[in-house]
Design goal:
With 356 residues, the protein is mainly alpha-helical. 80% of the residues lie in helices and 0% in strands.
Length: 356
């Protein structure tokens, strides 16, 4: 009889399925629209289109009540679970051999840009009084890989969905600005294609935005941009591990020593030191580094990663509340512009230094 008894987790998933269906169906429809927009306008990255569609869906009169009502559980599920799956597949884009190919000087420069952007953006956001986890989430998005980093750090910290959604909206907006502005500066700044590609890879947020910006200067620029960008993506794992460790210490401090030694509460899981999706990300990097995966498998994984992240970002975008965002609008806009100038300026100085 015990073999016929369903496990609690299975029962929960069965009960959740009807509640998740409206949101997941809406996210799938939005993904189709985002794909169509990207194909009609290749300069608009798929992930950017997905976020914008999510924000629009949350504010269109007839659709708003659905997004905030029946579809909310499924959209929140997409923003969390599909984001994790997409980040795992993102690891298949990065092989350890790529580090040797790009040169250690560029790796060190990229690391310096990430640390300077992370610290500078977080400090400025705190000084401007942005609420909740927005300072950390925005800093992670600017420093590493845009919305993907925000999703990963927010998962590790247990951030409020609204903080994550606001951070994604800001980082996506500024990343889109880079697509329009950076190519116009290549000529006036006298940057060759290789140096321009490295600058784009070190300064632009999402991988899709990097591709859209760098491809304007040709294949050489695009190759360098993607390699430098993937070096930044590699910093996601240690950052998330550090955030998870900090969250655990904070939880221990709040709970007190008794919670440390006493029995766990029924049904309550202890958060892992390193989230499982980051373990999966590192495993994917290791598998890619073996060179055993054929190109068609890697291409399919890349397509799957894009689709999962786009669906997840629609879910996050649908949680943006523009009226509440306008209450901190001036501070948020100032932070976005300043952080964008910081990452662009620091990375520009870095690539020029390495190019000498």
């Amino acid at each position: 009889m015990a073999l016929l008894r369903e496990r609690p987790g299975q029962c929960d998933r069965v009960r959740e399925a009807p509640a998740l269906s409206p949101g997941l169906l809406l996210a799938a429809c939005a993904l189709t629209v985002a794909l169509a927009v990207h194909r009609l306008l290749p300069a608009v990255p798929l992930l950017t289109a997905a976020v914008v569609l999510g924000v629009l869906a949350a504010h269109l009169p007839r659709l708003r009540s659905v997004v905030r009502g029946a579809a909310r559980p499924g959209l929140s599920y997409a923003g969390r679970r599909l984001m994790r799956a997409g980040i795992v597949l993102l690891g298949l884009q990065l092989g350890l051999g790529d580090v040797a190919g790009i040169g250690w000087a560029t790796v060190v420069m990229t690391l310096a840009v990430v640390m300077a952007t992370l610290a500078g953006t977080w400090w400025l956001a705190r000084r401007l009084g942005l609420p909740g986890d927005q300072p950390l989430l925005i800093a992670a998005g600017y420093a590493i890989c845009g919305a993907s980093a925000i999703g990963a750090v927010g998962e590790a910290r247990g951030s409020d969905e609204r903080d994550a959604a606001t951070s994604v909206a800001l980082v996506t907006l500024c990343g889109t600005l880079a697509i329009a502005v950076l190519p116009l500066l290549q000529g006036p700044l006298g940057l060759g294609d290789v140096v321009f590609g490295r600058w784009v890879g070190a300064s632009v947020h999402d991988v899709g935005q990097v591709v859209a910006t760098a491809q304007t200067a040709g294949d050489a620029a695009l190759g360098e941009a993607v390699l430098v960008k993937l070096m930044r993506v590699a910093m996601l794992a240690p950052l998330v591990a550090a955030v998870a460790l900090s969250a655990r210490r904070r939880s221990r401090a709040v709970s007190g020593p008794a919670a440390e030694s006493g029995p766990a509460e029924p049904g309550r899981k202890r958060a892992p030191l390193v989230p499982l999706f980051i373990v999966g990300f590192l495993a994917a990097v290791t598998v890619r580094s073996t060179g055993l995966l054929p190109a068609p498998v890697l291409d399919a994984a890349h397509t799957g990663q894009e689709l999962l992240l786009a669906t997840a970002l629609f879910g996050l975008g649908s949680a943006v509340d523009l009226p509440s965002l306008t209450r901190t609008g001036a501070r948020t806009a100032l932070l976005g512009l300043t952080a964008w100038l910081v990452v662009a300026g620091v990375s520009y100085a870095g690539v020029l230094l390495v190019a000498r």
